[in-house]
Design goal:
The chain is an alpha/beta fold and 266 residues long. It is built from seven helices and eight strands. The strands form two sheets. The protein has a six-stranded parallel β-sheet with strand order 1-2-3-4-5-6. A two-stranded antiparallel sheet has the order 7-8.
Length: 266
Amino acid sequence: MALPPDYHMHTPLCRHATGEPVDYARRALEVGLTEIGFTDHSPMRRDDFDNWRMRADQLDEYVEKVRRAQKEFPQLTIRLGMEVDYLPGHEEWIRELAARHPWDYFIGSVHYVSDSWDIDNPAKLSEWKHRDPDEVWAAYFDRLTMAAQSGLFEIIGHADLPKKFGHRPVRDCTPLYEKFLAAAKQAGCAIELNTAGLRKDCKEIYPSRQILQLAFAKGVPITFGSDAHAPGEVGLNFAEAIQLAREVGYKESLRLAGRKRTMERF
């Protein structure tokens, strides 16, 4: 059985990744992948919004880098996507981005629980000392639910990102998860099994087994992603992610092309 696609990887344009798309493609073939997708952090309308994404004037350059990889590795299916931050009020900007190129898919991710705090940013780790984890998780899942409801994304990224540094809620968040997953199901939106969590302080795939079980019960489809920021991370820990998915009950994952969805066994 072929490995499922790795649909989450970055490029140096985001300013915190190394290796060109051709390097990621080469590594994908080495580890036995037949399909990958690039999803670098999308630009914001303001280039000074933060310092970990491409500038708006680099969007065409990003697409060209991916196109070059497609030409150099015709034996590998390479999809063109982006990881797009969802913030309330930014929907029109996301639609503008969507119209600029023939994307295969967008991953919608929530990194910000306010316009100034990106909860996974190591440079802002001290902010957690002043925050109630329960409130952060509630705000995060509220925005994640809005992202799913927006209809702007094929995949929702790393669905329990607030656990990255080990900060977990005290209260039972099952109602938050249920509401988010109901929105994802209604919108036909997948969630990804993101193996980067195994490389972070939480030492756990995003999302947790509990969330994945709830997703399976609701019929929410899945994709797989390494969230690679270096070629050596392509397809990393996919064996563990596939095992988790199968243990929960999944047998198929979503495949994407031209923003159209199909299912395939893994």
